[in-house]
Structures are given as C-alpha cells and as structure tokens.
Amino acid sequence: MKEIIFLFSLFCFTFIFSQKPFEYKENHFPVKFVLKNSKDTITTRVQNIGFFTNKKFSPVTYIKEINVLDPSGNKTTISEFDIDYMEITDPQNVVRKYTSSTSLLLAKKDFGLIEILYKGKLSWYRDYFFEGMGYKINKVDFLIDRKDGKLTNESGFFKPSIKYNLKEKLKDYPDLLALVDKARKDEDFIKILELYNDK
Hints:
The chain is α+β, with helices and mostly antiparallel strands. Helix content is 23%, strand content 34%. The termini are far apart.
C-alpha cells in the first residue's frame, strides 16, 4: 500500500512540475493601457492580428476590441471604447500611442481609439476603422492646432490627404511648404511638424 501511495505521489509530482509554463508568441506584443474607469496602468501583452503576417502590427489588433493575455496565457477581451490611453510596442520596437476620441473632444459621439502621430503646436492624429461589412480598413487623419484648438481633418475628394491640410496650415512658411511637397511617408510629415514646432 505504501508503494502505491509513493508511486501515485511521484506520478502527481512529475505531472504537475513537468507541464511547461506559458510562453508568449511572436504575435503577442507588449501593451500598456489605462481604462476609462481607472487611473491604473495595466502592462501585459496584446494579441496582434495581422493581415498577411502576425509579426507586423495591424490596426485590426485594436479596432472594436483588443485581446490581452496575462502571464498564464489567459485571454481577456476589452472593448476599445473602454480604453482611455494605450501604447503597443511592435517587434521593431516602434511604440504606437493611442488616446480615446472623447479625450480630444473631437465629436459628441465616442468613436474609439485614435493614434497619436505627433503632439506639438500642430498635433496629428489618425483614426482607423472598418469600412462596410468586411475587414477593409480605412483611415482619417486629424490636425489640431494648439493655439486655437481648431480641428482640421482630411475629407473626401477635395482634401484627399494630410498634405493638403498641412499646406493650408503652413502657408506662411515657404521653407516648410517646399518640404510638404516632397513628403511621402508619415516620418516626413512628422519631421515637418517638428520643424514647425520649433518656429
């Protein structure tokens, strides 16, 4: 009888301690966020949902909801409308920052998280959203002038990009207008906003 108890105890001990602990996967990106009903910063991992690869960040990760994982691998779903502020770090160490649309007072209706591309005298934000019934992603960029709080956003056929809005805002700075014409990537526009911020 003692041998059976010993063998059973040995089996239980081996079984319990032989299970591998949960390990985050390459599509589990570090995330920090603050909920609207709290002041605490939660640090964990978010499950990235990419289109062609899960190694590259995609806004689908947070549109409508995010899936966060605790160190044990337990998944919790949180609505993007419950988040006040969020930072996601991708595998290339790019930190993407988001704030709730209600914190910017952009509209009476809450339309979720907005990416902070640049904050300064002229701040640049981007809203990603699903278009139609499928998973096609669209975006709208916003500029907010800190001096007057005025919001300018790209819209429709006549104002098709952030470039048009920057030209309007920077019309008194010919040196910056020349850079706007040459700008192609987000980084180019951020550099222009940094130069404007120093004037």
